[in-house]
Amino acid sequence: MTNNGSISDTITGTTGTTGDTVLVLGGSGKTGRRVAALLAERGVPARTASRGGATRFDWLDATTWGPALDGVTAVYLVYLQDLGSARAPGHIEEFLRLAKERGVARVVLLSARDWPAARPVEDAVRASGLGWTILRPTWFAQNFSEDMFLPYLQAGELRLPTGDGREPFIDAADIAEVAVAALTDDRHHGESYDLSGPRPMSFGEAVAAIAGATGRDLRYTPVSHQEFRADLVAAGLTEADAGIVDGLLRTIEEGSSAYLSDCVRRVLGREPRDFGAFAARAAAEGAWRV
Q1: Is the N or C terminus of the chain more exposed, i.e. has fewer CB atoms within 10 Å?
Q2: 10-137+172-195+260-272, superfamily in CATH?
Q3: Which residues touch 90 (CB under 8 Å, ≥6 apart)?
């Protein structure tokens, strides 16, 4: 990373073109809806797009791409299929070629930290000819409150094959703020930002924080990888998808993801939000109420 400017106040977009429209893909997702809300707060026109939204966008239906791009000069790019799949780079290359033809000048990609399978997509973004920024966050804190782990916590037990492995979970609100900075300020062009929360935590510690915030009896139970994959298949995932999720969690078990990244502080001029603050806020909003 080479950004050496004073960038704690750049979200206002004083060096960017905030009067132009930003296309927010995955506009109903954990980061997309937060990005759209922040852009609206700052008076930046934003168009949210998703498979079921008012602006329809489907990576598997290229006829939806052009209408979504009309009048757009920047894109928050979220690939809602598997970012590490073999077809992802081709989709991204084709979409960004069309985006450039339609007058898009910049793209901010949501990638993932320490995920080699996503690198071909990142390479496609770099080769697009657009101003680009790549965001590589750790696992979201909101995975506990909005979808992935939520049903298990509502039932009282989270069963994972992560042992005592640790992860510096990041609040999706921090990702969104960094994304808005990158979408509205040219000084972030050409940067790849690794994003993490302020401290590594085990899943047991995370569940304990949520239990404390909710007053509920919640448990984290370590299980074998075989048991975990069987649980996922029983819940409706294919064997292949269960293997992908299991593989991602294995990196946490092995401890390779426990290190911190400083890019939230570098971009926003403050430390990232703590998991405890996230748990208290989500609990107050009724995230784990049953």
Answers
A1: C
A2: NAD(P)-binding Rossmann-like Domain (3.40.50.720)
A3: none
